[in-house]
Amino acid sequence: MKKRKNEDVIKITDLSFAYPSQDYVFKKFHFNFSKGERIGLVGPNGSGKTTLFHLIMGLLHPSEGKIEIFGKERKVENDFVEVREKIGLVFQDPDDQLFSPTVAEDIAFGPLNLRKNHQETKKILKETLEILGLAGFEDRITYNLSYGEKRLVSLATVWAMQPEILLLDEPTIWLDDKTIEKIVQILNSHPHLSYIIISHDKKFLKETTNYVYEMRNGKIKIKKK
Amino acid sequence: MVNLIKEKFSEGDSLLHRLDPRVKIIVALFFSVIVAVTDKYTSLSVALLFAVGAVAVARLETKEIISRLLVVNSFIFLLWLMLPFTFPGKNIYTLGSLNIYQEGIKYALLITIKSNSIILAGIALLSTSSIFNLVHALRHLYLPDKLTQLFFFTYRYTQTIHSEYIRLNNALKIRGFKAQSNFHTYRTYAYLVGMMLVRSYDRSKRVYNAMLCRGFKGKLWTLNHFVFKKSDFVTGMVMISCIIGLVLLP
Fold first, then answer.
1. Which of B131, B209, B214 minimises the CB distance to A157?
2. pTM to 2 decimals?
3. Which residue of A has its CA nearest to B206?
4. Number of A:B CB contacts under 8 A?
5. CB atoms < 10 A from the CB of A32, how many?
6. Which chain A residues are within 8 Å of B210, Cβ to Cβ?
């Protein structure tokens, strides 16, 4: 089989999805994403941006259509176990993401699920905290952190799983300029990382992504380069 | 409630704080069972002394301990209102049309000593470990995963529901709500409780989804492992021997 360099890692064809007793969010929806891409996703509230992320992660299932990720069709819960190990979704609300008492425990949760041993996990923990500028946060209690710190720690919990693709849902919302700048720097200092970012922050998207896609009425199109 | 969430007692450097949580759980369980089944006053009085001693060794804040004991004893107080008048036995005093029975008083006293001993021992032994360490310890003691997770998430979501409550309560306050004894207040509180349930249910679903996204497959792995030291074994054995000694008292 011939493999192209820019193979689609996420390929969604003819997808339809509606929440119970509501109108279709997606009808015959198409979307491709290749490794190495860094794209932004904009669109009005309720246009299905977060829903798209949840469909990719297998938290929601389409009524029709095909979702192929890493060259395999993903249909049932078990298909998505591998997806979740390689694609990292950072939720919009950090209180949904953090559930362990301490920062260290929460960041270790992912790597331990990937069956990393303790030495590896502790190494990953240390590196992740350093990369995200959170060194010394190990024993902090997660629910006593400030909002900005919580956002960075939630990013750290996903980062620690060393995902191939990151899905960030409104990573800058309610953050101050300094923290946003920090996230920009982190993303830009890892040029090999692929990601999709949902955001309404035009400046942020300009600094971190190559393309911006717009979602509207269940369709997606390239807005600008 | 807030103190439970903050695990106020779990930080410290006393002998009991340093003791392996597995040993503490076993000793606490053994102590509770023995105290619960013993009916001898001498044994129970010494047990109460042990429990008070343990709290002293753990060097915990007295004020906080007393406020926790007050909660338990408010329930026991209800027993004192009932038992002396209803438990059949020797009538020692007549208060108007009510008879006070000796057996009733004895029985209420027994329950008071037992519950206070068990609670104090529980505070000294269990609340000196963090919840996460207790969960790990239970796993190491081969308690089924489902039970340990149930324990952990009950703790975790008590906190979530509590913060949800504070948020909603603030939303009420800033719009000038004042609790009174009228229909408006009852209805508002009913909405508050209903909303709390719905919101925390939704929240728990989202947290579970977030956990799935991070590769959760039904097992909580532990970051820190316990090291079972010789001193843990010795302390544990001394404590168990003391408890056995309780039973053997005349």
1. B214
2. 0.77
3. A96
4. 73
5. 14
6. 89, 91, 96-97, 99
Strand order in the sheet with A24-34: A24-34, A8-18, A64-69, A72-73
Q: Where are the domains of chain B?
A: 2-129+227-248, 138-213
Judging by DSSP bridges, how do beta strands A194-198 and A211-216 pair with one another? unpaired
pLDDT per position in chain B (250 positions), as tens? 444 456 778 877 888 888 999 999 999 999 999 999 998 888 999 999 999 999 999 988 889 899 999 999 999 999 999 888 888 888 888 878 888 888 889 999 999 999 999 999 999 999 888 887 888 888 889 899 889 888 888 887 887 788 888 888 888 888 888 888 888 899 999 999 998 888 888 888 998 999 999 999 888 787 777 778 888 999 999 999 999 988 888 7
* Contact (CB, 8 A) for A168 and A200: no
Per-residue DSSP letters for A67-93?
A: EEETTEE--STTHHHHHHHHEEEEPSS
Give the chain A residue nearest B211 (alpha carbons).
A97
| CATH code that applies to domain A8-224 | 3.40.50.300
B227 and chain A in contact, CB less than 8 A: no
Is A143's CB within 8 Å of B206's CB? no
